[in-house]
Amino acid sequence: MLVAVDIGGTFTDIIGVKDNGEIIYYKGLSTPKNPENGVKEGIQKLGISVDTLIHATTIATNSLLGQVNLELPKTALVTTKGFSDIIEIGRQNRPELYNLFFQKPKPLVPRELRFEVNERINSRGEVVKPLNTKEVEEIAKRIKADAVAVVFLHSYLNSVHEKITKEILSRYVKYVSASYEVSPEQREYERTTTTVINVMLKPLVSKYIESLWNEIKPKEFFIMASSGGLIDANEAIERPVQLIESGPAAGVVGVKYFADEMGIKNAISFDMGGTTAKAGSIVNGEIEITNEYEVGGRTHHGRIIKGSGYPVRFPFIDLAEVSAGGGTIIWLDEAGGLNVGPLSAGADPGPICYNKGGNLPTLTDANLVLGRIGEELLSGDMKLNKELAIKGLEKLGDPIQIAKEAIRLATLEMARAIRLVTVERGLDPSEFALFSFGGAGPQFALGIAEELGIKRVLVPVYPGLFSALSMLLADIKIEIRRAYPKDVDVEFRELEEELRRKMSSIDYFLRYADVRYKGQGWELTVPADGDIRRNFEERHRIAYGFTLPYDIEIVNIRVFAVKRIKKPKIMLKISDNVKVKERKVYFDDWVNAKVFIRETLPIGFRDRGPAIIEEYSATTLVPDGWSFTILPNYFIELMRE
């Protein structure tokens, strides 16, 4: 049994595939304090034993955001003499330019746990001041911490001092990370924060993975990395910084897989769950990747506010994320203005209609009151209380008008996230197909499409479980890099040989280069196959609208080793009897809408709105002016008429 598990802020999703292609699934409320309990409960209810477990986890993000019961370990930093304050000085980014009382993020390592070593390697990688091992031994004896990060100046060019220091410190401290194995590239501040965050996460992630492994007892265990590939459990324990955006990455991978199958070159991935909505883009068949992310900071309408958190230099699928999910709270400010989010009711207590003690109205309550979702979810396993939802919204005003306006505001916010990954990159969203999934995504997809001028929307199979399903379609993918290569071709081959020593089987390599014009401060990552300059100038023209007649320099080279995972054949059980009923639904006004059960709609079935399509894990809204068709791969294709 191949099983994928996605733990979200509201729901825990489990999806498994048997040898004959039969899909089994479970969707239940998450258990935030002990997330593994929700996984164990779901697997017990399915009554299965797990051969291969693939998992997306939010434990890395949640621990950095200060979730209760996820206490970060006391961490020390060992660095070059004179550079112990770099982690506090940082960059001169001011997220609040006119706030005279702005305070920078708290340093990850307090001053009393920063130690300096009198060694030095220069900017050409030459040893200027040799390492004194006795000095390192003395420092090791003085360190009173659970984890240690080692970051020496210019170690990305020559890591000899870091390797020796790590070996010595490992005799005294259990968890040690050195920058040459986590982030071997220039920019001392970013390299330091990345290494410190990596070692901070090591104890938590290793304990969590070991606990889940012991509970489930799979033969193989893989984790979804932020780059969109799978890594094995040991790699996740050694470099847990890869897991920071583990969950959101999965859905984009699934969208690319199906977009390739359907011959779609440009696609938008829109994932709306119980807590947040995430948007990503696939341009010319390629997922957009970024090499820097800022954790523990703030966002503004989907944009990360630079300088409000801690930078991490590692490959991430480029996503815009907004606080809009089924559990997002609707509230009035002091002036009586209606607001949606950013706070969420989460899984506990959840929306008012869950009848679990929640008393703050949410977007789920709004959709229930408007008839857009039924009074039963999960094929009847979860009952919703419409009367409680109405009473909750009545505290804010007329429940219908409040619900309608809240949904409009949420739609605008989510459309803004999609604009970040399209319009702000010079791309026209109307030229993209919108793939909408997540438990709440298909409820809002066509409203967002109308806002952006998108004419084609696709709702995949098992939309509320799609991120979990997508993990079954991902490949194993591990990245290593090298700074300032002297001979690009030779050093690419050396990195590939290093990856062969790490992985028992590799199907192919992906080569990338971080390139800039000489004199520029920042670089662009481009494919390194073929003419690197041409690839760079094409990307530069798209990003900035111009090119320059200057020489280029390659700052870093990166190689991904990819091992293909056999993709499961998905078999769906479709009833021969189309089930349809009617209920009153509020779109622009109250209308009698047909309500279909998706599991009964055969391939080729076609109808038009106003309609509702209900299924186990999601509800799709089809307003007037849109038609829908069931495609051969069981996707719902929605087209503007």
Automatic annotation (TrEMBL):
One term under GO cellular component: cytosol
Domain Hydantoinase/oxoprolinase N-terminal: 3-172
E.C. numbers: 3.5.2.14
Record keywords, A-Z: Hydrolase
GO MF annotations in UniProt: 5-oxoprolinase (ATP-hydrolyzing) activity; N-methylhydantoinase (ATP-hydrolyzing) activity
Hydantoinase A/oxoprolinase domain sequence ranges: 191-479
InterPro entries reported in the protein's UniProt record: ACX-like_C, ATPase_NBD, Hydant_A_N, Hydantoinase_A, Oxoprolinase-like
Domain Acetophenone carboxylase-like C-terminal, first and last residues per copy: 573-630
GO BP annotations listed: glutathione metabolic process
Protein name per the record: Hydantoinase/oxoprolinase family protein
Originating species: Sulfurisphaera ohwakuensis
Lineage, uppermost ranks: Archaea, Thermoproteota, Thermoprotei, Sulfolobales, Sulfolobaceae
